[in-house]
Amino acid sequence: MSAPMMPRRRWLTQVWPPVAGGLAALGMGGWPALASAAEPGRAGQGASPRLISLSGGMTEVVYRLRAEHLLVATDTTSTYPVAALKTPKVGYMRQLSAEGVLSLRPTAVLGTLEVGPAGVLAQLREAGVALHLVKADHSFDELLAKVRVAAKASLMPDVGKALEAQLQNDWKATQQRVAQAADARRQKGQAPRKVLFVMNHGGSAQGAGKGTAAQAMIDLLGAVNVLDAGQGYKPLTPEAVAQAAPDVILTTQESIELRGSVEAFWQQAGLAFTPAARQQRLVSMDAMALLGFGPRLPQVLDELNRRLA
Question: CB-based burial of residue 289 (10 Å sphere; 0-12 exposed, 13-18 middle, 19+ buried)?
Answer without folding.
Answer: buried
